[in-house]
Protein backbone atom coordinates (compact mmCIF):
# COMPACT_ATOMS: atom_id res chain seq x y z
CA UNK A 1 0.00 0.00 0.00
CA UNK A 2 1.50 3.37 -0.98
CA UNK A 3 2.33 5.64 1.93
CA UNK A 4 0.38 8.86 2.20
CA UNK A 5 2.45 10.36 5.00
CA UNK A 6 2.96 13.54 3.00
CA UNK A 7 -0.78 14.25 3.16
CA UNK A 8 -0.81 13.88 6.94
CA UNK A 9 2.23 16.16 7.09
CA UNK A 10 0.44 18.73 4.93
CA UNK A 11 -2.57 18.46 7.22
CA UNK A 12 -0.48 19.17 10.31
CA UNK A 13 1.11 22.19 8.65
CA UNK A 14 -2.33 23.50 7.60
CA UNK A 15 -3.91 22.97 11.04
CA UNK A 16 -0.96 24.63 12.75
CA UNK A 17 -1.12 27.64 10.45
CA UNK A 18 -4.89 28.01 10.90
CA UNK A 19 -4.47 27.90 14.68
CA UNK A 20 -1.66 30.44 14.49
CA UNK A 21 -3.84 32.83 12.52
CA UNK A 22 -6.91 32.28 14.69
CA UNK A 23 -6.44 30.29 17.95
CA UNK A 24 -10.21 29.77 18.32
CA UNK A 25 -10.88 28.73 14.72
CA UNK A 26 -11.28 24.98 15.24
CA UNK A 27 -13.19 25.45 18.49
CA UNK A 28 -15.79 27.58 16.71
CA UNK A 29 -15.86 25.30 13.69
CA UNK A 30 -16.50 22.19 15.80
CA UNK A 31 -19.53 23.74 17.50
CA UNK A 32 -21.61 24.42 14.38
CA UNK A 33 -21.61 25.20 10.70
CA UNK A 34 -23.56 28.21 9.47
CA UNK A 35 -22.86 28.68 5.76
CA UNK A 36 -24.78 31.15 3.64
CA UNK A 37 -24.08 29.26 0.42
CA UNK A 38 -24.63 25.86 -1.15
CA UNK A 39 -22.23 25.14 -4.02
CA UNK A 40 -23.20 22.53 -6.61
CA UNK A 41 -20.16 22.01 -8.76
CA UNK A 42 -18.12 19.57 -10.80
CA UNK A 43 -15.95 16.92 -9.17
CA UNK A 44 -12.96 18.15 -11.19
CA UNK A 45 -9.94 18.44 -8.88
CA UNK A 46 -9.00 21.78 -10.45
CA UNK A 47 -12.14 23.50 -9.17
CA UNK A 48 -11.91 23.70 -5.34
CA UNK A 49 -15.11 25.43 -4.29
CA UNK A 50 -14.00 27.22 -1.11
CA UNK A 51 -10.65 28.35 -2.46
CA UNK A 52 -11.76 29.99 -5.68
CA UNK A 53 -14.24 32.21 -3.82
CA UNK A 54 -11.92 32.86 -0.88
CA UNK A 55 -14.05 31.24 1.82
CA UNK A 56 -12.92 29.31 4.88
CA UNK A 57 -14.18 25.90 6.01
CA UNK A 58 -17.65 26.28 7.46
CA UNK A 59 -18.66 29.09 5.13
CA UNK A 60 -19.87 27.03 2.16
CA UNK A 61 -21.82 23.76 1.96
CA UNK A 62 -20.65 21.76 -1.06
CA UNK A 63 -22.02 19.08 -3.38
CA UNK A 64 -19.97 17.93 -6.35
CA UNK A 65 -20.49 15.41 -9.12
CA UNK A 66 -19.30 14.83 -12.68
CA UNK A 67 -20.40 17.82 -14.82
CA UNK A 68 -22.36 19.51 -11.98
CA UNK A 69 -25.66 17.82 -12.83
CA UNK A 70 -28.89 18.11 -10.79
CA UNK A 71 -31.22 15.18 -11.41
CA UNK A 72 -34.60 14.82 -9.71
CA UNK A 73 -33.97 11.13 -9.03
CA UNK A 74 -30.54 11.71 -7.45
CA UNK A 75 -31.21 11.39 -3.72
CA UNK A 76 -27.64 12.31 -2.90
CA UNK A 77 -27.97 15.74 -4.51
CA UNK A 78 -31.56 16.26 -3.36
CA UNK A 79 -30.64 15.37 0.22
CA UNK A 80 -27.80 17.87 0.12
CA UNK A 81 -30.13 20.59 -1.15
CA UNK A 82 -32.72 19.70 1.50
CA UNK A 83 -30.19 19.80 4.34
CA UNK A 84 -28.67 23.06 3.09
CA UNK A 85 -32.02 24.82 2.63
CA UNK A 86 -34.10 23.47 5.49
CA UNK A 87 -31.50 22.78 8.19
CA UNK A 88 -28.62 25.14 7.47
CA UNK A 89 -30.91 27.84 6.02
CA UNK A 90 -28.57 28.90 3.24
CA UNK A 91 -29.59 31.97 1.29
CA UNK A 92 -27.90 31.13 -2.00
CA UNK A 93 -27.52 28.02 -4.14
CA UNK A 94 -24.72 28.35 -6.69
CA UNK A 95 -24.52 25.95 -9.63
CA UNK A 96 -21.02 26.31 -11.05
CA UNK A 97 -19.67 24.62 -14.15
CA UNK A 98 -16.24 25.12 -15.68
CA UNK A 99 -14.74 25.43 -19.12
CA UNK A 100 -12.63 22.43 -20.03
CA UNK A 101 -15.02 20.01 -18.30
CA UNK A 102 -14.21 16.47 -19.46
CA UNK A 103 -17.81 15.37 -18.95
CA UNK A 104 -19.18 18.19 -21.07
CA UNK A 105 -16.58 17.61 -23.79
CA UNK A 106 -17.35 13.88 -23.88
CA UNK A 107 -21.05 14.70 -24.18
CA UNK A 108 -20.34 17.13 -27.01
CA UNK A 109 -18.20 14.65 -28.95
CA UNK A 110 -20.26 11.58 -28.15
CA UNK A 111 -17.21 9.88 -26.62
CA UNK A 112 -17.65 6.67 -24.66
CA UNK A 113 -15.83 6.71 -21.33
CA UNK A 114 -17.48 3.88 -19.38
CA UNK A 115 -20.00 3.76 -16.56
CA UNK A 116 -20.14 7.56 -16.41
CA UNK A 117 -21.80 7.54 -19.85
CA UNK A 118 -25.06 6.75 -18.07
CA UNK A 119 -24.68 9.85 -15.90
CA UNK A 120 -23.66 12.03 -18.84
CA UNK A 121 -26.90 11.18 -20.63
CA UNK A 122 -28.27 14.24 -18.83
CA UNK A 123 -25.64 16.50 -20.40
CA UNK A 124 -26.21 14.90 -23.81
CA UNK A 125 -29.90 15.76 -23.39
CA UNK A 126 -28.85 19.40 -22.97
CA UNK A 127 -26.71 19.13 -26.11
CA UNK A 128 -29.62 17.76 -28.14
CA UNK A 129 -31.89 20.49 -26.82
CA UNK A 130 -29.53 23.17 -28.16
CA UNK A 131 -27.95 21.26 -31.06
CA UNK A 132 -29.11 23.75 -33.68
CA UNK A 133 -27.42 26.67 -31.91
CA UNK A 134 -24.32 24.64 -31.12
CA UNK A 135 -23.91 23.72 -34.78
CA UNK A 136 -23.63 27.41 -35.73
CA UNK A 137 -20.43 27.81 -33.68
CA UNK A 138 -17.18 27.54 -35.64
CA UNK A 139 -14.74 25.88 -33.24
CA UNK A 140 -14.96 22.99 -30.83
CA UNK A 141 -13.83 25.27 -28.02
CA UNK A 142 -16.76 27.60 -28.70
CA UNK A 143 -19.14 24.66 -28.82
CA UNK A 144 -17.75 23.21 -25.59
CA UNK A 145 -18.00 26.55 -23.81
CA UNK A 146 -21.57 27.03 -24.99
CA UNK A 147 -22.61 23.54 -23.89
CA UNK A 148 -20.91 24.09 -20.54
CA UNK A 149 -22.97 27.27 -20.05
CA UNK A 150 -26.21 25.73 -21.26
CA UNK A 151 -25.64 22.81 -18.92
CA UNK A 152 -25.27 25.18 -15.96
CA UNK A 153 -28.43 27.02 -16.97
CA UNK A 154 -30.31 23.72 -17.26
CA UNK A 155 -29.21 22.68 -13.77
CA UNK A 156 -30.23 26.03 -12.30
CA UNK A 157 -33.70 25.40 -13.71
CA UNK A 158 -33.65 21.89 -12.25
CA UNK A 159 -32.75 23.22 -8.80
CA UNK A 160 -35.54 25.78 -9.01
CA UNK A 161 -38.04 23.00 -9.75
CA UNK A 162 -37.16 20.81 -6.75
CA UNK A 163 -39.82 20.43 -4.08
CA UNK A 164 -37.33 21.63 -1.47
CA UNK A 165 -36.77 24.96 -3.20
CA UNK A 166 -40.44 25.37 -4.12
CA UNK A 167 -41.47 24.73 -0.50
CA UNK A 168 -38.87 27.21 0.75
CA UNK A 169 -40.25 29.93 -1.50
CA UNK A 170 -43.83 29.04 -0.53
CA UNK A 171 -42.84 29.48 3.11
CA UNK A 172 -41.41 32.91 2.42
CA UNK A 173 -37.73 31.95 2.76
CA UNK A 174 -35.21 34.19 1.01
CA UNK A 175 -33.42 31.83 -1.35
CA UNK A 176 -31.71 32.56 -4.67
CA UNK A 177 -30.34 30.15 -7.27
CA UNK A 178 -27.38 31.29 -9.38
CA UNK A 179 -25.58 29.97 -12.46
CA UNK A 180 -21.84 30.55 -12.73
CA UNK A 181 -18.97 29.19 -14.80
CA UNK A 182 -15.29 28.99 -13.86
CA UNK A 183 -12.47 29.49 -16.33
CA UNK A 184 -9.45 27.29 -15.65
CA UNK A 185 -7.30 29.52 -17.84
CA UNK A 186 -7.43 32.58 -15.62
CA UNK A 187 -9.08 31.40 -12.38
CA UNK A 188 -12.02 33.77 -12.79
CA UNK A 189 -15.73 33.16 -12.34
CA UNK A 190 -18.39 34.35 -14.80
CA UNK A 191 -21.98 35.06 -13.83
CA UNK A 192 -24.29 33.63 -16.51
CA UNK A 193 -27.13 35.95 -15.53
CA UNK A 194 -29.53 33.21 -14.48
CA UNK A 195 -30.29 34.12 -10.87
CA UNK A 196 -33.75 33.03 -9.70
CA UNK A 197 -35.24 34.14 -6.38
CA UNK A 198 -38.93 33.28 -6.78
CA UNK A 199 -41.19 30.93 -8.79
CA UNK A 200 -42.29 33.86 -10.94
CA UNK A 201 -38.69 34.29 -12.16
CA UNK A 202 -38.40 30.76 -13.55
CA UNK A 203 -38.43 31.01 -17.37
CA UNK A 204 -41.48 29.40 -18.94
CA UNK A 205 -39.72 28.42 -22.17
CA UNK A 206 -36.38 28.16 -23.93
CA UNK A 207 -36.74 31.67 -25.36
CA UNK A 208 -36.38 33.05 -21.86
CA UNK A 209 -33.06 31.27 -21.27
CA UNK A 210 -29.99 33.55 -21.47
CA UNK A 211 -27.78 33.03 -24.52
CA UNK A 212 -24.43 31.40 -23.63
CA UNK A 213 -21.48 33.67 -24.21
CA UNK A 214 -23.37 36.87 -23.38
CA UNK A 215 -21.60 37.18 -20.02
CA UNK A 216 -18.24 35.76 -21.11
CA UNK A 217 -15.36 38.23 -20.96
CA UNK A 218 -13.22 36.35 -23.44
CA UNK A 219 -13.23 33.15 -25.50
Cα distance, first to last residue? 44 Å
Task: Give the CATH superfamily of the largest domain.
Answer: Carbonic anhydrase
For the biggest β-sheet, the strand order reads: 2-1-3-4-5
String of helices and strands: HHEHEHEHHHHHEE
Number of strands: 5
Helix and strand content put the structural class at: alpha/beta
In CATH, the topology of the largest domain is named Beta-carbonic Anhydrase, Chain A
CATH architectural arrangement of the largest domain: 3-Layer(aba) Sandwich
Give helix % range: 40-55%
Number of self-contained structural domains: 2
Report the total helices.
9
What radius of gyration results from the CA coordinates?
19 Å
Average pLDDT, to the nearest integer?
92
Low-confidence stretches: 214-219
The CATH class of the largest domain, by name, is: Alpha Beta
What percentage of amino acids are in beta strands?
A: 5-15%
Biggest sheet overview = 5 strands, mixed
What is the 3D shape?
globular
Amino acid sequence: MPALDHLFANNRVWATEMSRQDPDFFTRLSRQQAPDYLWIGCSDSRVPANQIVGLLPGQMFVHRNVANVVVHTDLNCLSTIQFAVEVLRVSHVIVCGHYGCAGVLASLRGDKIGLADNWLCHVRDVRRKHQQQIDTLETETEREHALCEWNVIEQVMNVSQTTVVRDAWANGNALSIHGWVYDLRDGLLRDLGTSISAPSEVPSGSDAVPVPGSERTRD
